Amino acid sequence: GDVIHRMLTATQYIAPLMANFNPSYSQNSTVQYLDNGTVFVVQWDKVYLQGKEDMGSFTFQAALHSSGRIVFGYKEIPVPVLQISASQHPVKAGLSDAFMVLNPSPDVPESRRRTIYEYHRVELDTSRISSLSAVEFTPLPTCLQHQSCETCVGSELTFNCSWCHVLQRYL
Question: Which topology term describes how it sits in the membrane (predicted)?
Answer without folding.
Answer: Single-pass type I membrane protein
